[in-house]
Design brief:
Layout lengths: L1 E6 L7 H12 L3 E7 L12 E5 L20 H31 L5 E5 L4 H11 L3 E5 L14 H15 L4 E4 L2 H11 L4 E3 L19 E5 L8 H8 L6 E4 L4 H4 L8 E3 L4 H11 E5 L6 H5 L3 H8 L4 E4 L2 H10 L2 E4 L4 H13 L1 H11 L5 H23 L1
Parallel strand pairs: 1-2, 1-4, 2-3, 4-5, 5-6, 6-7, 8-9, 8-11, 9-10, 11-12, 12-13
């Protein structure tokens, strides 16, 4: 089938989009991705093609600089907090309109909407061509953290739109059982399939360490990631703790790092090597937002793919997965002493935890999730053939 994917990201760094698209190409389909402000010269490889719709809004022209990550005066911060909802609505709305225009000039048998921001565009294009579409929900949109003023009317409108447009989807994909159950319960959908943000199996794993040499947090360096708790736990702790990832520089200027070694983001292979050399992955987020309780972080699957045990926050779906496969120790969010105890638990019996993680690798790998993704598209293809025969 010819698949038209829509995603309001730059594509270049969106590992879920690229992994799904490449898997579908390997399964015999063709895939074109319409992204948002895709970098010039980006080559997705693997038989994929990509086009780009610009980023603009009533508040910022295409190519204009963002305030995110800058030091802002109190007045500027207040203005951003007040106006950000209108900017986001305008920017994503304009992108969706552009994606519809781009898609109208292409041939496709199915549309694949990555996240709520692409849902209206996918439903529109699929309706015009009388073809099915897939809704791939990367988050539980109604439970996302809000870093702007309360918008109850807009939130209700978005829930109505998700219910209406998502209810037309031939299939719904999402990242974990928590989000899947939330979608089923909220909207009554019975066509939801879980495709985790997992990683491919590696056949080049080194022998496990006899004991860990350190701990690594590899992810977004910003608020609501439990980094304050990690920093407090680092005081008086022997093992070094390294934090790597893209940072919210505004947040970072006031963050007390204690004994943490905070470094910029690294390419995936370098981050993987650092995790393997340290021996323990910190997989953490807050308990503040519903989406955090439902989330299944990429960091968990990254660590498992490398055979690295976890110390994780005892929150929601993340904790459920750690307990189910006995992947490491859990701690109470916000409690530095609980975190120190969890680290000690993993250090004291490290070979057992490493063995548990390696035993879980096959079931928690992309190979397993790819099978579920390909099966969804095989069903769509069979239905299409029945309609045309």
């Amino acid at each position: 089938m010819n698949i038209l994917m829509l995603v309001a990201t730059s594509v270049a760094t969106d590992t879920r989009v690229l992994r799904e698209a490449r898997t579908l190409v390997q399964a015999g389909h063709s895939v074109h991705i319409v992204g948002r402000s895709v970098p010039d010269g980006f080559d997705p490889g693997d038989g994929l093609t990509v086009s780009s719709v610009g980023t603009s809004s009533v508040f910022r022209a295409e190519g204009g600089s963002s305030l995110q990550g800058r030091k802002m005066s109190p007045v500027t911060r207040l203005a951003r907090w007040a106006l950000l909802p209108q900017h986001r609505h305008s920017a994503f709305g304009r992108w969706a309109d552009g994606a519809i225009e781009d898609g109208r000039g292409r041939q496709f048998d199915v549309v694949h909407a990555h996240d709520f921001t692409a849902l209206r565009a996918a439903a529109t294009l699929a309706g015009e061509r009388n073809v099915p579409f897939v809704y791939d929900s990367h988050e539980f949109w109604p439970g996302l953290p809000r870093e702007y003023r309360p918008t109850p009317l807009a939130d209700r409108r978005e829930r109505r739109e998700e219910a209406e447009f998502g209810g037309r989807a031939a299939a719904v994909l999402t990242v974990g059982e928590g989000v899947a159950d939330a979608l089923r319960n909220l909207y009554g959908w019975d066509n939801v399939t879980v495709v985790h943000n997992s990683f491919p199996l590696r056949d080049d794993l080194p022998e496990p360490l006899p004991r860990p040499r350190g701990l690594v947090y590899a992810g977004r360096v910003a608020a609501f990631r439990e980094l304050e708790t990690i920093a407090e736990a680092s005081r008086g702790f022997d093992l070094p703790i390294t934090v790597i990832g893209p940072a919210d520089e505004t947040w970072l200027t006031t963050f007390d790092r204690a004994r943490l070694d905070v470094q910029p983001a690294r390419p995936l292979e370098e981050a993987s090597q650092l995790l393997q050399e340290a021996g323990v992955s910190l997989v953490t987020h807050s308990n503040k937002w519903l989406n955090h309780r439902l989330a299944m972080p990429n960091k968990l699957f990254h660590a498992v793919s490398l055979g690295v045990p976890l110390v994780a926050t005892d929150v929601g779906e993340l904790a459920r997965m750690v307990r189910r496969y006995d992947l490491g120790a859990l701690y109470t969010p916000g409690d530095a002493e609980s975190l120190r105890c969890a680290i000690g638990t993993v250090v004291r019996d490290y070979p057992r935890w490493a063995g548990n993680v390696r035993a879980a690798r096959s079931e928690l790998s992309w190979e397993s999730d790819a099978d579920r993704l390909v099966a969804v598209y095989a069903d769509l293809d069979r239905t299409r053939e029945e309609r045309t025969s």
